[in-house]
């Protein structure tokens, strides 16, 4: 139950705490009053009812720019056998082949969206596995869900295939996939890893994107192998080709285990190329440096997170997002951006650091993905998340399960969907 029931209609919420960077003020936290009228933030009006909020923290509704709605919630029927990255890949491949019908994908995606909405998310980009014949199935269901969820959660999709499936000399299957992406108003994506033809494949990728006016989103260097450095090649090819649509790179884990000088040279190229970076700290903490198959008693030596502080220092647009949810790549999670913020702060030591990291969960992903910018200024939609916390330590010490979520000026019912709804899908062989 929410910590407070707010009156319907126009009202002034008095004495809220907000990250100062979100209202353009210096320092860490600030105090504000917010007036809500007709579904929007409005100018102050002394004639309206006033609710004293006792310094409760307020955020604009969140943006989760890297998820996998199509994989979500398959864990009960497709758990990772050893917690490893390879275990995740093989398990998902088998489950996709056996079970990912339109009805299956649709039910799990809708379940995940209801969870995200209840937690206070207003925009999501999801990657969709696009290994034939899955692309037509998943994109078909996504387009229908995008229409059904319009006005509640803005949705984008990015295709997910692998760099080695791009023929650098003719369109082939990847050209057909790029056409589907364009037809559905989506984003062109793939996973990069070392390949003898990677630079030619990347040139072909960007040619497909440029010819269709598409944004790009890569899964990049999701490994603890320091020799893997495709991020540098992506930046170099963007600079070489002059590709000028937004390019997002996710994960970038190997940077953290490369020699310092080498990693920083790569970041200088990333900054020069104008790439957007999204870090996925919870999933990377779960998978990276796990060696259960060969040494089950070994403790992991690193956190899996990429060099977000060094990126921010170079002006690189850095975001954080949920990634996977209850699937072989991450056994946990619920598309809750308060959880992502809390865990990113702990894992990446965002505390005792710069005071503007709140942008990485709001403004930065909006910029990277092209969603409407979050705002608390008059005229902005009254889409808010309010927590019974007066400081960062109070916010992060508890899960904020009694938060208030306001959409279009109205406090919503935050009842989460019951996992039992998906039981009929978990009986699959």
From TrEMBL:
From its record, what is one biological process in GO terms?
cytosine catabolic process
Identify one Pfam family in the record. Amidohydro_3
**What region holds the Amidohydrolase domain?**
140-411
- Write the record's keywords in alphabetical order, separated by commas: Hydrolase, Metal-binding
Q: What is its EC number?
A: 3.5.4.1
- Tell me a Gene Ontology molecular-function term this record carries: isoguanine deaminase activity
Under the heading InterPro entries, the entry gives: Amidohydro_3 (IPR013108), Metal-dep_hydrolase_composite (IPR011059), Metal_Hydrolase (IPR032466), Metallo-hydrolase_Enzymes (IPR052349)
Please state what the protein is called: Cytosine deaminase
- The organism is Paracoccus aminophilus JCM 7686
């Amino acid at each position: 139950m929410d910590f407070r029931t707010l009156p319907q209609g126009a009202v002034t919420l008095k004495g809220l705490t907000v990250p100062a960077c979100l209202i353009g003020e210096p320092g860490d936290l600030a105090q504000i009053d917010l007036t809500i009228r007709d579904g929007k933030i409005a100018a102050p009006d002394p004639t309206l009812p006033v609710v004293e909020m006792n310094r409760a923290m307020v955020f604009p509704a969140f943006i989760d720019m890297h998820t996998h709605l199509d994989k979500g919630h398959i864990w009960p029927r497709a758990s990772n056998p050893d917690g490893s990255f390879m275990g995740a890949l093989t398990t998902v491949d088998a489950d996709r082949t056996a079970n990912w019908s339109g009805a299956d994908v649709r039910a799990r995606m809708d379940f995940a969206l209801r969870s995200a909405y209840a937690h206070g998310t207003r925009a999501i980009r999801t990657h969709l596995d696009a290994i034939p014949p899955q692309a037509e199935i998943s994109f078909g269901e996504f387009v229908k869900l995008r229409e059904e969820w319009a006005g509640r959660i803005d949705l984008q999709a990015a295709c997910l295939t692998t760099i080695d499936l791009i023929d650098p000399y003719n369109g082939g299957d990847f050209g057909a996939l790029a056409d589907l992406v364009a037809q559905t108003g989506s984003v062109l994506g793939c996973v990069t890893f070392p390949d003898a033809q990677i630079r030619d494949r990347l040139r072909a990728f960007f040619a497909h994107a440029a010819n269709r006016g598409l944004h790009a989103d890569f899964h990049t260097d999701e490994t603890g192998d320091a020799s893997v450095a495709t991020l540098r090649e992506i930046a170099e090819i963007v600079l070489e080709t002059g590709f000028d649509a937004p390019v997002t790179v996710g994960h970038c884990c190997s940077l953290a285990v490369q020699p310092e000088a080498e990693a920083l040279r790569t970041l200088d190229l990333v900054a020069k190329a104008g790439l957007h970076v999204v870090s996925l700290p919870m999933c990377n903490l779960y998978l990276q440096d796990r060696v259960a198959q060969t040494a089950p008693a070994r403790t992991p030596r690193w956190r899996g997170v990429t060099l977000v502080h060094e990126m921010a220092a170079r002006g690189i647009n850095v975001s954080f997002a949920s990634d996977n949810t209850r699937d072989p790549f991450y056994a946990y999670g619920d598309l809750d951006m308060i959880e992502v913020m809390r865990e990113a702060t702990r894992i990446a030591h965002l505390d005792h650091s710069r005071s503007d990291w709140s942008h990485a969960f709001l403004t930065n992903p909006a910029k990277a993905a092209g969603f409407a910018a979050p705002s608390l200024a008059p005229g902005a939609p009254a889409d808010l998340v309010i927590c019974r916390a007066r400081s960062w330590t109070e916010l992060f010490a508890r899960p904020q399960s009694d938060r208030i979520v306001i959409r279009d000026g109205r406090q919503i019912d935050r009842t989460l969907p019951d996992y039992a709804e998906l039981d009929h899908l978990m009986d699959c062989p």
